[in-house]
Design goal:
The chain is of the alpha/beta class. It is built from twelve helices and eight strands. It has one domain: Aldolase class I (TIM Barrel). The chain has an eight-stranded parallel sheet. Helix 4 links the parallel strand 4 and strand 5. It is globular.
């Protein structure tokens, strides 16, 4: 069993000038983050523009990350889609190429009932022999599972934990109390120490792509009892996140990686491109803090 606790970058997907997945740059980012000491990767999630990728591209991203990471770290593949059938197909594919777990956002758009969402998760979990991690992000999915429903899912023998992207930290604490053996990941980078304080085992985050070292250190300091030290680094990270929010987080993250020497291109439309002025702002506001 791989280690599921710790720091997991939610990987961005690079595109080349022809709007194709840039596999070489993706491999370079994976290798760079492994060198920094991350515990694993969360692949093809929201940050990876999963819902803007074709099925072929999504499988290519899964395959590329596995080739670059090998068995060095824990790999979690986000397989979420609106369709249970398609999510199961993705789950079976990533299991076949050696992923350690799958994860899925709740099916969205059609306003499925919570009971239907629960059955969706159980169907994915029952389809593979690697564990499932629920992806709780109500602000984007529009799905707010109750504490009882989350606890029911976490009692399933093949459901390992939850990626908790919400600022309701009381509920996170209640999940931890009800399900002491579950793996819980904090999802909002700017509130990492809030999640740790309420019982999270680590974090999955998009800004980890280029500043994983800060979150690794926050986690280490927190575990050692140096709360003040963890807080200071969280505040440093939050200055960077504040700058990203001014231009658009995902587009800003790709721009920062480009400024650091990668070639991640831009986000896929309908996302827009940053202006030269916005890129200059990020250069001045963020690079000195890294």
């Amino acid at each position: 069993m791989k280690n599921f606790k710790g720091i997991f970058p939610a990987l961005l997907t690079p595109f080349d000038k022809n709007d194709n997945v840039n596999t070489e740059q993706l491999k370079l980012l994976v290798e760079k983050n492994i060198e920094q000491g991350v515990d694993g990767f969360y692949v093809a999630g929201s940050t990876g523009e999963a819902f803007l990728l074709s099925e072929e591209e999504r499988r290519l991203v899964y395959k590329t990350v596995k080739e670059a990471a090998g068995d060095k770290v824990t790999l979690i593949a986000h397989v979420g889609t609106v369709s249970t059938k398609q999510a199961v197909e993705y789950a079976k594919y990533v299991e076949s190429i050696g992923y350690d777990a799958v994860s899925a956002v709740a099916p969205f758009y059609y306003k499925f009932s919570n009971a239907q969402v629960v059955e969706h998760y159980k169907a994915i979990a029952d389809s593979v022999n690697i564990p499932l991690i629920i992806y709780n992000i109500p602000a984007f999915s529009g799905v707010e599972l109750t504490l009882d429903e989350i606890a029911e899912l976490l009692s399933h023998e093949n459901i390992l934990g939850v990626k908790y992207t919400s600022n309701d930290y009381f509920k996170l604490q209640q999940i931890r109390e009800r399900c002491p053996d579950a793996i819980i990941y904090n999802g909002f980078d700017e509130m990492m120490i809030s999640g740790l304080a309420m019982g999270a085992d680590g974090g999955i985050g998009s800004t980890y792509n280029f500043m994983a070292d800060k979150f690794i250190r926050i986690h280490q300091l927190w575990k050692s009892g140096d709360i003040k030290g963890a807080q200071e680094i969280q505040w440093q990270a939050n200055k960077i996140i504040t700058a990203l929010c001014k231009v658009g987080v995902m587009a800003g993250e790709k721009a920062v990686l480009n400024l650091l020497g990668f070639d991640f291109g831009v986000c896929r439309k309908p996302f827009g491109e940053l202006t030269d002025e916005q890129i200059d702002y990020l250069k001045e506001a963020i690079l000195p803090l890294l």
